[in-house]
Amino acid sequence: MVVSLTACSTTGDGDGVDAGDAASSSPAGPQASGRPPAPGPAVEVETVADGLTIPWDVVRDPDGVIVTGERGSGTLYAIREGGERSTVEADFGEVYDRGESGLMGMALAEDFVTSREVYTCHSSAEERDNRVTAWTATEDWSALESPRVLVDGILLSDRGLHSGCRILVHPDGTLYVGTGDAFTGPAPQDLGVLSGKILHITRDGEPADDTIGDSPVLTYGHRNVQGLALRPDSDQIVAAEHGPDVDDEVNLVLAGSNYGWDPNAGGRYDQDVPMTDTRDFPDAVEAAWRSGDPTLAPGGIAFLDDPAWGEWDGALAVAMLKTSQIVLMALSEDGTSVTATATILRDEYGRLRSITPEPGGTLLVTTSNGGGEDMVLRVRPAAG
Prior knowledge:
Strand content: 35-45%
Strand order of the largest sheet: 16-17-1-18-21
Largest sheet: 5 strands, mixed
Number of strands: 28
């Protein structure tokens, strides 16, 4: 099973995209009233690095080295204990940095200790697409070498809108990739393209064994997938996705399923449609949770997995862009509903982009304010 969280408004992701006027379906879950979630557990925050510009994702290797990359410049940094920072050389070519595109998702291979394999997703100006690449990191993190393109041809909008692109490495070594619809009307429902989808591939770029036909497409009918996380002690995967002007959603995602986003109006992109259109697609997967109006604009997600989080241990933590907070969501055991929500860091650090769990229950969180004002934060539950 896979779980998907949906929400990117044309204004909702706050990256300067255009405004839409989508029709709302009836809200579900605790956020339906439009009221902000109640305050969550007390936390302590440490600044790991500052002076960055839109660090879209962050990873941590087993030795504690933290690596992040700036979306627009395509620059990668390795950050060591004490804050020492160095540049990681990687030949991305010319990164297409318009709109929401550029250097986006990053992940480490499950066997990184022995393989040193790193995965990235970036927008290529030369190839005019979004692509997933596997690299080998040098022992000192001075460079990413030996690039292998695993997936290419993911649509890239001229304006750089709705590019996705989050990567999740499963314990079995396969990769899940969330893609955006590239602001292209036919894409989400067209199984012949890779955009508006969740992909599932092997580490060699081949389709995994649960995809549709001989393609890497696992699920379709998505708008702009920006977060992926594996629920501890289960086979459920959660995906964060932006809706239009209403209805950020959390869904239980099943391989081969349609999530009902169809902005195609004779080739034109029409946002005045429901995020989950069960009228035109009766088998579309219904939301377990959606924001209604207003949207919150989720980015990266992670599960809390340490008893120090108290009653929120096991909850899904969702970084919100537009609403500048982390929302904690308690999921039902089967993943089909959200039973409670709470918020941390609300209006304290501006827009929040990504969340990466560390050993011991802490979270690495990146801000997304731009102009050299961004940080990598370490968030932990406050000592009792």
